[in-house]
Amino acid sequence: LKEAERLEHMVENILISGRLRGGAYRVHNEPVALRPFLEGFVEHRRRYVVDRPDAFGLVWEPQTEDVAVHCDPQALRIVLENLTDNAFKYGGSKTEPPQATLRVRREPGRVQLSVEDDGMGFDPDRAEDLFVPFTRMIAGPAASQHGTGLGLPISRELARRMGGGIQAHSPGPGKGSRFTVVLREVEA
After folding, report:
1. CB atoms within 10 A of CB 161
2. What is the Cα–Cα distance from 68 to 71, expressed in whole angstroms?
3. Are 148 and 89 in contact (CB under 8 A)?
4. Is residue 139 classed exposed, middle or buried when 0-12, 13-18 and 19+ CB atoms within 10 A define those classes?
5. Percent of the chain with pLDDT over 90
6. How much is the pTM?
7. What is the pLDDT of residue 144?
8. CA 84-90-95 angle, 5° bins
């Protein structure tokens, strides 16, 4: 099941990349209540961490209980799948399996959705390079992980088309990563 999911995800990314470049991918933003959307997403993703469903957590920062954002639900799912897949591919260490957290933070007029991992991290000065198509800045054992180098560029473009953005943060190699999607909040 994991391998079939991985292959389906890879094919989906290749098709989406082509549609984005060709102008055929349309984003349809609408108000989306985050609690049911994210709880459903996390539950779905936990099914693919069969032996460790607690390896993927959802954390709500204060004042985020009833928050809603302007987004395309399908596009947001694709973004979060790409970020979560990366967290599990490149998270963990030689002795510890990967752990990932989806954290929700609210700021004036916007909401941050961060996927955080405990893995290989990256040089903070190279964060923007991660969003260049077909670029994979991976060395060592993680270099054998399957991937196309399209997930992060697709995620950034979809976030932009939803009126938001995405940033990558890491304190450095071996110190984990945080990828933060910023979307506009729906006014109450």
Report:
1. 16
2. 9
3. no
4. exposed
5. 54
6. 0.84
7. 47
8. 120
Give the pair of three-digit tokens for residue 86. 């990366």
CB atoms within 10 A of CB 179: 26
Look at residue 100 and give its three-state secondary structure: strand
DSSP 8-class letter at 33: E
Most confident of 12-21, 104-113, 141-150: 104-113
What is the side-by-side order of every strand in the sheet holding 177-184? 56-60, 100-107, 110-117, 177-184, 165-169
* Separation of CA 19 from chain center: 20
- Nearest in space to 82 (alpha carbons), one of 41, 50, 31, 47: 41
Task: Please give the structure tokens belonging to residue 117.
Answer: 């991992």
User: Rounded CA gap, 79 and 160, in Å?
Assistant: 11
| Segment holding 81, helix H or strand E | helix 73-90
- Mean pLDDT rounded to a whole number for the chain: 85
Q: What are phi and psi of 51, to 5 degrees?
A: -85, -10
Rounded to an integer, what distance in angstroms lies between the CA atom of residue 80 and that of residue 157?
Answer: 13
Contacts of 181 (CB under 8 A, 6+ apart): 76, 79, 80, 83, 112, 113, 114, 155, 159, 164, 165, 166
CA dihedral angle for residue 28, residue 34, residue 35, residue 37, rounded to 10 degrees: 30
Angle at 22 between CA 150 and CA 79, to 5 degrees: 35
The type of residue at 176 is: G
